[in-house]
Amino acid sequence: MTVEQNVLQQHSQKHQQTLLNQLREVTGTTDVQLLQQALQVSNGDLVEAVAFLTEKNAKVPQQDEATYYQTAQITNDRYISVGSQADTNVIDLTGDDKDDLQRAIALSLEESNRAFRETGITDEEQAISRVLEASIAENKASLKRTHTEVWSDSPNPHERKRMENCPVGLKNVGNTCWFSAVIQSLFNLLEFQRLVLHYSPPARMQDLPRNQKEHRNLPFMQELRHLFSLLVGSKRKYVDPSGAVEILKDAFKSSESQQQDVSEFTHKLLDWLEDAFQIKAEEDREGEKPKNPMVELFYGRFLAVGVLEGKKFENTEMFGQYPLQVNGFKDLHECLEAAMIEGEIESLHSAENSAKSGQEHWFTELPPVLTFELSRFEFNQALGRPEKIHNKLEFPSMLYMDRYMDRNREITRIKREEIRRLKEHLTVLQQRLERYLSYGSGPKRFPLADVLQYAMEFASSKPVCTSPVEDIDTTAPPGGTIAQLPPPASAGEQPDACVSAEGSGSGLQASQQQQQRVSIHKPFTQSRVPPDLPMHPAPRHITEEELRVLESCLHRWRSEVENDTRDLQASISRIHRTIELMYSDKSMMQVPYRLHAVLVHEGQANAGHYWAYIYDRHHQRWMKYNDIAVTKSSWEELVRDSFGGYRNASAYCLMYIDDKKPFLIQEFDKETGQMLSGLDKLPPDLKVFVEADNKLFEREMEEWDALQARKLQQEKLALAAAAAAAAAASVAVQPMSTEPCSPDNTAPSAAPQHDPEYMEQQSPSGDSKHLQEDTERAISKAAAEHDEKSPEALLNTAMKVEYTRLLRLAQEDTPPERDYRLQHVIVFFIHNEAPKKIVERTLLMQFADRNLGFDERCKSIMKVARAKLELIKPDEVNMEEYEMWHQDYRIFRETSVFLLIGLELFMKKSFVEALMYLIYAYQYNKELLAKGPYRGHDEELIAHYRRECLLKLNEYAAALFETGEEAKVNTGLSIMNDLVVPCLPLLLVDEMEEKDMVAVEDMRNRWCSYLGQEMEPNLQEKLTDFLPKLLDCSTEIKSFHEPPKLPSYSTLELFERFGRVMTSLTMGRTPADGR
């Protein structure tokens, strides 16, 4: 085949694909075979093809058809430019006239074709243009965002500095997470990366651009080279891709915007790159057939073998991204098997000339990079909108493609036939097993083995009846009237006390007497068990011989049923195993493809967030590329987010690479064969570009450091001035010190050590008074036991008394409303097994209070305690450890205050004010619990109210949005943007907390539910702008509110208020109740 023929064939294939896309969009038909049949019947005439499909679907009621087109018309109204004039060729589609519908479709197709002829740009490319323009506009608008929105850069460049050996992220410049996911997946294909970095534009630049495509492709390639070079060698944590997005936006002109389909973008991106490399290949061919590296890397070929109306055909086709249907399949191999066989193909394997139609696909040549496009979106014609398929679909990390290769056609057909036979047998066995496991003829069915067991238990039961005398005594009316007794049993009746009404010889008389008896019962005795019925089901009459025979039969039958069930289950398991191992022999494992990247979408069909999992072959681990955040991941996380069926996240694109071609992912120089890394991978022009950008970033960090140094110096000067002023004032008013000097009459060499604020005793009120009273009681009790002891002995005894009291409090099993850790720091220390020296010093500090008391005994003990403190050597008590323990207690008290205020506000339904208190209570508490289980409060309780608060705010904001009023809508979105959205990463970061994950999904689903509803264009625009922020799955906290300022509580007040709040929670619903 000549070069011209090859180009013409590729152009013909692209043109046919364009026609299929247009026909699918106009008619809503997704059956590829039916679409191709329509094009063949109409000889490529779109109008006739639409007419053919319309007649095919004529069975659909006209009312539904009109409703569908009305819906589509309303949906598209929001894309009409403001101020544009109405088209004079408007056709009314609301009537029943089918001619109007046909003319409308024809007019639409004519307009689409005319636009293509005039501009050379397809509707698909214009759709991409619309989302790119929206992205750029969003990027510019982001400059006006508040600090709580997710994509604002940190002013501190050190927070934007790249960690050593960490991959570089891509900034989301406004609804461009799809761009980041695709570009990162391609960039990490090192062969593709080399091709882009070493791409050089054609030498005939003066002759270019020759057409619009070249005008678009060459600047884009240059911008892509710059972007890839920054991803290789930048010192920034993430880089801005606006340059590439700007080039793409400028290539198309449109004023409309919509959510971009990433599969279409990937397809078009590869087309653009193919065109760019084709220009270079044609220049370098020198009379030889040009080789396009994009085609060699991403495109393969398959052989289509089939029968059309009884006539056999066979042709070869080229493919890039291979589309696979998800709905109705459980794993990737099932999807591939279905995609390789279309229609009924029995006639392919028989000598008969059947009229059946169908075809098989067999790969003749697989590309080094094999990409599967998973069709997770389908158009719901009844609702008139696209919907996402959330079904679970499993895929392997290593995929063997042998069974789909043309060279293995015959053996694969044999194995498929064997699998088909096994599956038929499997269906029969499963049906038989189901009869055992769901036995019965009514609506409720039970396992047959259990039914037999229940029958055996019933037969073995003995009847136990109530005494009629007891029944009468206990049911007698208060007035003393005794209910009328039934007549004594006649001779023909059984003497058994448990005779039924049906077994009575005088049924009518017994019935009348029973009614008469019941009629005089009081209301509270009406529901009692009648005295002639047993207390539990049991046989009335059964002999020992009958019971023995019945039990023997039931035992034997149950054993037989259990054996049959086990045999069926074992047979089913063996067949499943046989099917799984059908292709496990070595001859069918010669074409291995390793999973390289998984592109994931979370959300609904009209909006969502995209990210990618990419395998790092060098470090043998998975990495998660989520815009600016690049983090280590695992196969387990990938499975959870990519298989589907869990939340709204699932894979939409799988990228496999040939495991026998290591050059795809190895870093080396093709010319020298040396391994390369970092800037050494770049050609000279790009190395200069990256070094210049790194110098700019280094200068930015230096300027920031200089600015911070100046601020720090100014703060130090201000503090020094304030300290000097305070010292001058203190000298002016301070009285003569009456404290005794140290034994050597010199000042202590150690720096003064300040007591913790909860141990400071500066006044006889608040904490001081409470702690002072406890200390004085301990001294009084010690003095009562030993009247004549020295102050030092009294101090030791008093400390033992106080410690015994605190130990008893610590050992009590108390509910949350009586948390004695809030009463005293030593209780906290005992709970957490603090070192003995830390506890002793803390207790000694308590008795060293200057304001301990005014009697001589207390003063003498205080002086002894202070002297002991001064004699403690640095090596006896680690002061850093001492401060650390007291710092933890300070944080515990702050956490308690955060939780106290947050719960009080929550119970007052002040959710906006309560949120930050609960958020910081959880964060501080989590840090404490990381050091020990008794250092904080109940994590589940705080998590519950934090979660509930966010859900309440979400409901409130959604209710405001539903009003449609501008002011209320803005208030609702402000609550979401400023409060709820920044907090979502806190719920997502701990992925083991299932309730938090479910809550986030509930919030997202509430807002995604608006996508299918009709609303004003301005509300639609606000919703489209807001949803990507809500659906962002990043767990990185970009910016956040400062913690609220806490009021000062005394120990007693904090203990009592905390107890009241916890009591209120105990009386209400507990967190275990769930949401």
Core attributes:
single chain; 1075 residues; alpha+beta; eight-stranded mixed sheet; four-stranded antiparallel sheet; 32 helices; globular; disordered N terminus; Ubiquitin carboxyl-terminal hydrolase 25 isoform X26; hydrolase
Shape: globular
Supply Rg.
40 Å
User: How large is the count of helical segments?
Assistant: 32
Poorly predicted residue ranges: 1-8, 58-98, 115-119, 131-151, 252-260, 466-527, 731-754, 760-766, 1070-1075
Strand content: 5-15%
Task: Decide which structural class fits the backbone.
Answer: alpha+beta
Helix content: 40-55%
What does this structure look like?
Keywords: Hydrolase. This is Ubiquitin carboxyl-terminal hydrolase 25 isoform X26. With 1075 residues, the protein is an alpha+beta fold. Helices cover 53% and strands 9% of the residues. The strands form four sheets. Strands 5, 8, 11, 12, 13, 14, 15 and 16 form an eight-stranded mixed sheet that branches. A four-stranded antiparallel sheet has the order 4-3-7-6. Helix 3 (46-56) packs antiparallel against helix 5 (98-119) and helix 9 packs antiparallel against helix 10 (242-251). It is globular, with a radius of gyration of 40 Å. The N terminus and C terminus are likely disordered.
Short account of what is shown:
The protein is 53% helix and 9% strand. The protein has 1075 residues and is α+β, with helices and mostly antiparallel strands.
